[in-house]
Predict the structure of Pirin family protein.
Amino acid sequence: MKKSVKQTFPLSIPWQTLDPFLFSVYHLDNYPKGNGEMGPDSSLLQDRNLGNDFDPSHKWRMYHGQTIPGFPYHPHRGFETITIVNKGFCDHSDSLGAAGRFGEGDVQWMTAGRGVQHSEMFPLLKDDEENTLELFQIWLNLPKAGKFADPHFRMLWNEDIPVVEEQNAKIKIIAGAYKNVASLDPAPDSWAADPKNEVAIWNIHARAASEYVLPKANTAVNRVLYFYDGNDIQIEDKKINPNFGIVLDPSRDVNIKIGSETAHFMLLQGKPIGEPVAKYGPFVMNTQAEIQKAMEEYRLTQFGGWPWPYPDHVHEKNRGRFALYPDGNLEKK
């Protein structure tokens, strides 16, 4: 009998992905109260490798931040980043002059294309209570024809992202179509922009002690379900614990029996691009020669330079959610 589950694997940092996805990472940080300057109200001198703080034994991390957690400016070329912030906030700044503060369910979709620098900082805006951050970042590859696309930045606001509420589950549709409900439009040069590629990014929350049926895909795609929080689940005769990835047969509906806690999943699927992948840090091309050229161009041009006063630029503390686009258009929420 054909099985729904092809493979399971423990979730590492970052998560293992399949073509057309390159990388996915899940951050859950229980930051303390803020110190009034958007950093943690806690000593940073004990047990922290500031500037490179990724210790998984800590309740929270500073990452590459020195005073405010996050990732100061760094370059990308040849792919897209999709940043989903379920809890807390992220401050974006980039070499195009675009900027934004987003969180509490918002998603930022950025096409690096031919090259862009950006920073992603996590300002701790609450000084009277803890600042929990739950964030996913997903790297979606670009095909050779799109590697040098114009960089593009877009915000998908939480209020606008479609959500399907079923009897036993709530499904947030960040990319693709769930049954008859389609996502907001992705970036124009994205592999996700062509429906034939059936790219899907769904954040699924299934009710405790219930059964949820994940509908099959329409085409032969790579499909991975990431079980990142909950108790346990069962698919057919296989019991699966949290913090496991599940490679699924896309041609079958999948009946999932949920354990005693709400189960939280991220689903990534898409038609494989099927091209050679050459990676070096923040650059993803098709050949090592192209990687070398990308590094050389970055050294010469800095992909447009850095128009902000600090590498770890953050916005004014009292500023709300907003997106400032390279053309000067400003959205406020």
